[in-house]
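User: I'm new to structure prediction. If I give you an amino acid sequence, what do you actually give back? Let's try with this one:
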Amino acid sequence: MIPIIPVLVVIILLSLVVLILIMASQKEETRTKEPKKHKKNRSKEAVIRDATRRLSQNPKDPEALLALGDIYYQDQVWDKALKIYETLVELCATNPDLDEYEINCRYGMSALKLGLQDQAYKGLVIARSLQQNNFEVNYNLGYLEFLRKNYEKAVQLLQQARTQDPEHAPTLRYLGHALFKLHRYREALVFLRKAVDLIPEDKESLYTMGECYYELGQVEQAIKIFTHLRPDPSLGPTASLFAGTIHMNQHQYPKAIMDFEIGLKHENIKIEIQAELKYRLALAYLKQQEIGRALTILKELQNSYQNYKDVPTLIAKYQELNSNKNLQIYLMAPTGDFVTLCRKVVLSFFPKARVKITNIAVNKNEWADILAEVDTPKWADVVMFRFIRNQGVVGELTVRDFHAHLKEVKAGKGYCLSAGTFSDEAKKFVEARLIDLYEKNQLSKILESVDASVSAIPL
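Assistant: Good question. You get back a string of structure tokens that encode the predicted 3D arrangement of the chain. For your 459 residues, that looks like this:
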């Protein structure tokens, strides 16, 4: 029988030998791997040293330049790559063995990465003249044409790039923007939608989509986009301005006011956008007959931007209106309120007289004709009033029309009141006729006192 102890000793010794062999093998493998990595690094370093040495002897050594340029280009050391390929571009003219396409392409791309657009354009144009079916060249040259505002060329190049890579979002983006610049709004929308689907955070493309919808008359889609973009820190002010302008055009003044106010809450707004937001906000308040608020904004605007548009004129005009409530109604109120005020003027026009209004006729929102029977202690007659809302110059034709109307209703006297002035021809026309003309200053005085006097008139 084999003794147990010697067998155990043999087994233990064999296990130790196997363990030592495994550890030695792993150590050897590690040593084998490490030199490969170092060898690779040393290889690149050796190439750089060798190329640098050769270039110190001959600065235009093509092999050394190509080796060094390839390393810098692959490692994205763009400034050094640009210098290398700039030299190689010059050598292409005298060395037919050089790959002129690749050298110009890499020269252009290195310049583009450094923001040197003119140099990038030069290199990529030459590269494309040698090979026209490279996506990278077509896209980047199309992008540069877009920056140079050559939109037709940009569209051609980007269309070709799109056929090579239909899902490349930047290609779709700039193709859409270029078509928008060319006023080809329907085509632009197709590519902008795809670009935004691929990159939802591309707010500029979304904004341009809104502009396309607006230009195509699809204002509901446009307003949705601009409303969505109002909170954006960058595009918010202009989106608010656009949204507010659309609401103004739709006579939705409270919504327009909200849009403009949201736009003005942003920080670091461009001066011209801030001024326009304030200006249109003031106009919206005027449409709402909130003259006090409008004046406050207009005066702020005048202090910041001297003589912006017609701000001085608006301030002068509405300061007077703000102090004369009836003049506000006369010029700005709905037709019903305007006619009610005109009735009050007629009833208070002749002191101590009994006045009976027999007819009221309104011509759109331009003027109102009121016929009345007037009975005073000294005389009685039928008179007609024409109240003209226009603040400009009233010409002879309007006065002639009033005179003809007087004859039709057989009125003995006519009174023509305007919020503006009368032309010289109009004044000459009434000289020999029973028509009195009242210009703005006289009308303002009448309107200031009309409420107090009306309360004392027997009806």
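You can read the tokens as a compact description of the fold. Here is one thing that stands out. The chain has a mean pLDDT of 89.
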